[in-house]
Structure to design on (710 residues):
């Protein structure tokens, strides 16, 4: 006898990128930041008193929320702290979308979205992106006419790296009948001045997702946050999130990390520089990619992409291959340090020479 | 305009016990363990390399699950690691109960259960406990005849501290058509030999909840686990939990804590000894309580219980008062250290003398 709900039985779970345990593997498959977290993180861990773990943690991570509100020149009521961006995505669905109500996404998009929609038993409305990974003009109309309750948009886009301009975000928020969740997991690697948090003051259907996983080199910490009008934050904060969703030590580490913008910005700058170099060097090998505002490149492969993925894996270099319509001739490659990127480049060069 | 789902709009969130920030308050209101966590926890934090946080953590906490499986003489497929017991409760509902399907509980019970049922939009079937806090004979029949999909049972019971015998658990698991979730948050403080994990081998509708919050002095860590047949564990592990639900540092700390049974057992023994002493001393003051197998006592108050709660609070002593039918003449008091219990006892003695 199976006790699973029918929608859970029918669905597949999220498949995360492989996490090899050995020390020699070059991991360019899950968009982790190649630079270490802030020295303030180290200090926060060193100064932590283990006996403090005896007690329940602050239930809403008030200190972290205050620091983050200040960073974005917003109020603490505009912020919810979550266990990675994943928890925010789940909470937004749980709080605002009834089972059976449609959730809107682009195609392609972050592969977790359909999984989360499946758990809530919500159908997807998918709109294909243009050839340049931009949004078609009828995007908002399609969402509205399908009765979409929540639109999930990752910007900069994954897996292409393309960035929608702020003006488009504004227009979308105005046009959409639904909540617009703007997933800014990669926003820290955008080169231009790009300040979206202030938009939540005018757009009360906009929720912005941020994470410390990429920009703050803390994928292992599971810490993110949402930015929105207080009426959207409040039910998630007081009703639908787990009572104590963030442990005490994580809160301290996240407070340290968000307070050290200088260290984080240094890593963003280094990633941006290496992104340009890697893109140019890959192009010389016949592997082109669209302009990326993230810490990864979506690279066209001059040979069978899955083969190239496997041959890199043989050499202990992990990149990401998606067996999906518009992606199966491409590889998604995370930008590493200079030395890591050099190792990747010479491996690709050798493999291509053998064809 | 409100975007909240109707069921979320209608519900109230969980109210956790107060968490005063000052150092002088005696916290006997949230059932935390009064003794510090294992020295192995301290070592795990000291030995942790912050650069490891750069990468995503092991997605299923495999090492912790292996250690825990070994502890309970079960297989790793019988275990899921979760962010506190709370996450397990949520996952069980999300995975196995459709919106609209009833969830069964006792009355009174852990006050989080109705909140979680509300989030999933599930009605509650409540069965009142007997005067001695035992289950009425028709409990399973009532659940079955109401089409209950999931029965939530906290054992030892909160807030009474009463323990149902293993034989009753076996019978319930046999009789119930639903999944039986046995919330063993307080199991470590049971005096008799009480080994339920092995029951999951025969009872494929049984899920046991354990937490490191109480027994391992790690409420601030948010780490718990579920024990069940693999067919119940698997969909939660691979489909419905957040992709990386447990951060790396928490996993290391939990592995250290679960490996040091000696230290944990020492705290359990001390709590049990103090529980007996506190119960006897309170009885001398006219405040009786039923036998408790937990780290708290449900104490009858000879004066207005809410008044007593408030007057203790004036003296910076926090205990828990529930304004509920069978509880409003009682206080739930966490067992502290000897010194803490002495401070409580003399405060109560002084307050009662003033009546």
């Amino acid at each position: 006898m199976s006790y699973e709900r029918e929608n859970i039985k029918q669905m597949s779970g999220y498949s995360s990128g492989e996490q090899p345990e050995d020390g020699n593997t070059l991991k360019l498959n899950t968009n982790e930041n190649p630079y270490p977290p802030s020295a303030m993180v180290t200090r926060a861990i060193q100064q932590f008193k283990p006996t403090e773990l005896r007690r329940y943690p602050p239930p809403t991570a008030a200190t972290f929320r205050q620091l983050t509100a200040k960073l974005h020149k917003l109020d603490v009521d505009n912020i919810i702290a979550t266990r990675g961006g994943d928890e925010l995505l789940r909470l937004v669905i749980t709080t605002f979308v009834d089972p059976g109500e449609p959730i809107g996404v682009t195609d392609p998009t972050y592969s977790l979205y359909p999984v989360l929609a499946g758990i809530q038993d919500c159908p997807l409305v998918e709109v294909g992106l243009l050839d340049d990974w931009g949004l078609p003009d009828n995007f908002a109309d399609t969402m509205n006419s399908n009765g979409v309750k929540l639109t999930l948009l990752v910007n900069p886009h994954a897996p292409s790296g393309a960035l929608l301009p702020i003006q488009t975000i504004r227009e979308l928020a105005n046009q959409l009948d639904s909540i617009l969740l703007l997933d800014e997991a990669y926003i820290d690697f955008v080169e231009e001045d790009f300040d979206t948090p202030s938009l939540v003051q005018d757009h009360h259907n906009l929720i912005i997702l941020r994470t410390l996983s990429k920009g703050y080199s803390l994928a292992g910490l599971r810490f993110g946050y949402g930015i929105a009008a207080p009426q959207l934050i409040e039910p998630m904060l007081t009703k639908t999130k787990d009572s104590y969703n963030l442990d005490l030590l994580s809160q301290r580490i996240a407070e340290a990390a968000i307070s050290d913008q200088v260290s984080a910005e240094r890593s963003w700058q280094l990633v941006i520089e290496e992104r340009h170099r890697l893109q140019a060097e890959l192009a010389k090998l016949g592997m082109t990619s669209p302009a990326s505002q993230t810490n990864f490149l979506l690279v066209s492969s001059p040979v069978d992409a899955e083969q190239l993925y496997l041959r890199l894996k043989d050499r202990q270099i992990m990149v990401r291959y998606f067996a999906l319509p518009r992606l199966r001739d491409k590889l998604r490659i995370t930008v590493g340090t200079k030395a890591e990127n050099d190792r990747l480049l010479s491996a690709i060069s050798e493999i291509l020479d053998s064809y």
About this structure: Chain A touches chain B through 80 residues (CB under 8 Å). The mean pLDDT of chain A is 96.
